[in-house]
Amino acid sequence: MSYLTCRTVNFLGALGCAGALIIAVVYFQQHLGLEPCYLCITQRAFVALAGVIFLIAALHNPLQRGQKIYSGLGIAASLSGGFFSIKQLRLQNLPEDSVPACGPPVDYLFDVFPASEVITMLIRGDGNCAKIQWELLGISMPGWVLIVFVILAGIGIFQLLRKH
To answer: What is the rounded distance in angstroms from the CA atom of residue 99 to the CA atom of residue 92?
Structure first.
């Protein structure tokens, strides 16, 4: 396993994040025509954040202390994103009469509201987030994104605990 240097693992983490975002935008959004809900966009932001952290760590290639800092940041981004995946899964499993009302499309939010309000709305989610638009093996999109976040957190933990 000596070929799996910190730099290599960080590049692989960054590539995995880029791949997940490309799949989300090109395949799901453009090809299948699925519009992302508020929580989907929030989850994408955390995948992007984790990817940027992994990329900076790979490019910087710090010594042990720096690597631990980057690992901690990557773990924090992954856990935060996982929180929003779980939040969306909870919304998807609510009884129909408990689902919150749907809000306006995301494009409209960015056109009309200030950024601070848009961020608050994206974090809160709405009834659109409760709709299951796609499943694979009985797992909906936020379930798969949660798996991605668990893998990313696992990479961060691996980097945090490894001997340099």
So the answer is: 8
